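Extended Data, record NADH-ubiquinone oxidoreductase B12 subunit
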Amino acid sequence: MQLTHIRRAPRANLTGFDPRAFVASSGSPANDPWRRREAWRYAGQFTRWNRFKSAFPGLGIASVAFAAYCGYEYMFLKDDHAHAEGGHGEGHH
């Protein structure tokens, strides 16, 4: 059995409003009075990179501190128990 596609006619627009025509006609005007007032949102401290950097404050310091602790633990905090050899005594089998 083959699947068939049913094509339906587009629904009638009761209001007469065409959203595609509205989007096409709403391009940016030649002299936008709000352009200068909106420019600060994308420059200086509000650039995408600066917003990303400030999204995780302390992440760099925390990463360095964690790496230092892992290095300290690896070098100086050795496990004194010998788990691989014999265990707790000679009599245990």
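Summary. The helical segments are 19-25, 35-38, 48-53, 59-76.
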